[in-house]
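Hi U.,

Before I forget, here's the chain from the pilot set. I'm dumping it here mostly so it's searchable later in email.
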Amino acid sequence: MSRASSLARLLPLTILLAGAPAPAAAYEKVPSRLARLSQAEAIERIRVREMQDAPHVVISTKKVWDRGRTVDGVHVSDVHLRAMVDRVTGSTRWELWHELDLYDAKREITGLSYRIDGRMYHANLLRTETSDELCPSVDGPATACHVRVRSVFEIPERVLQRVAESYQPGNEQYWELHFSDREGKDIKAGLAPVEAAGLLSSVQHLRCQGIASC
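Structure:
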């Protein structure tokens, strides 16, 4: 059995809550079908990537659910968590990834604010990546050109711990996220707390398997 499949963890469940500048377009809660997912269903969801020459092991929640949503010509294709675990020391950088598929629009995500214990905090932007513009061929259907923009933010471990502590099976409350662009427009999204709980548990298990002492 691979290390990835043997991780003892909860389901990292991410649910996108909005893809439009207007916060009113957002979901107000995690859908009950997702909130009811069991721990047994969770075990295979987090992905662990180990490359022989890489200094870090990457633990990602990207594949846990199809969370895309298109609103007003902007497709928010993914919001997920990643942990970059040092192979020697076990020290970890915690990241939140945000991906936009843009059609006939030029937007750059420059900020992330999140709510913890009723207060808003800001995350550090690590990097932004933009793909080459993909346009249909002359003979193809009349569709807009497409650009994918990926923004990566650093999240403190203590924040993820607080989010994880709020997890309860069946709870439909989400961790509220607000992404902003250069024009000051807001894209509201969110993560179910079980994702943070699952990622923290996965990293701890990996450390105990030999990367570093528990």
